[in-house]
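User: My instructor asked us to take a sequence, write out its structure as tokens, and then describe one feature of it. I'm not sure where to start. Here is the sequence I was given:
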Amino acid sequence: MKNSAIMRVVFALLALTLFATACGSDAADVVGNAADTVADTTGDVSDAVTGDEAEPAEEEVTEEATEEVTEEEVTEEVVEDDSTDVELTQDGGSLLGAIQSRGTLNCGVSTSAVAFSELQADGSRTGFDADYCRVVAAAILGDSEAVNFVALSAAERFTAVQTGDVDLLMRNTTWTQSRDTDVGMDFGPTTYYDGQQFMGRASDGFTADSTVEEIDGAIVCTNAGTTTEKNVGDAAGVLGITVDLQGFDDFDQVTDNFIAGACDVITTDGSGLVGRKAQQQPAGEEWVIFPSTPISKEPLGPTYGQNDSAFADVVNWSVYATIIADEYGIGSADVDCADPDATGIPEVGRLMGGEGELQTAMGLSADAFCNAISQVGNYSEIYDANLVPVGLKREGSANAGWLDGGLIYAPPAR
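Assistant: Let's start with the prediction itself. The structure tokens for your sequence are:
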């Protein structure tokens, strides 16, 4: 506003100057008088534009306009955010809603892990991990058999989650800091506490009392691209020993090479070695597992993509439900989904869909966890059916319940 007034004055002076040049001194006198007048006018205009009364008026207009625009923009943003929240709530979260619409859980499992994930001759998939896939399917879909098992190598597993080929990994996957950050995975409750050990032949001088130092100079075979492989390298560096470390895509190949004599020692989680020894040790040969104390911590459990809390909550509480039921000694034969409060135990009643249940708030049916327990079993039932037959006992191990000195523990369902 101020600049416009001054520009008009300048243009007026320029026009008068040109007129004076053309008309002579008389006109110049007129121009001089006019210039004085214009100068006075300019001062008045300047004072008027910059005066105390004009400035607040301009600020008030600006503030009002700004407030109007800001309020409109904020209102629009709030409306958009609210509508987004409603959509997410209605479909139960992106992945959870997709699974419910699809009617099948895509669950990634190991290609072959004795007692954890094994493909049977009839095409069925058995094992501890496979059964926990069924637990989650029963909770989400009401049917423990609504599972599409996807066999994955160690190298394939995380990519399969990232690309959406699988919804969930139940694949003896260790929870580590790098996988929680760089790889971009999230982890659920630990379903099995494991630790890395080695297995060699008694005929080669190995015993149950052997130490890691005794593998110096040995050909050591394991799965490629795993924490197991890295742990061997770390241990060798700390102890100052040298090993010929060879990696394979899956543990079937590792064991086959060990049987053929191409590997002196093989290494993986202790549970995996126990299973292989139980099923594949040749007659007349003795395989020994060592050292007695594992060289690493290997917490295994469900793994899924980051930043989907609705799906994560469902997976986590499906596992917790099996643990809590086990703590109360409530198994598949003890629950009645038509009468969830029949046990008389309030916490069990809530989990089974009775008074105070929270499953519907999670986007599930009230009897979601009752379906999981009745169709698959509690933690002990799943453990005993799959792991005890190969020699993996709960008693005295980290996988005993917390009331028995172990680490298997669930937060309260309330």
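For the description part of your assignment, you could build on this observation: The chain has three domains: 2-50, 94-192+300-404, 196-296. Try explaining in your own words what that tells you about the chain.
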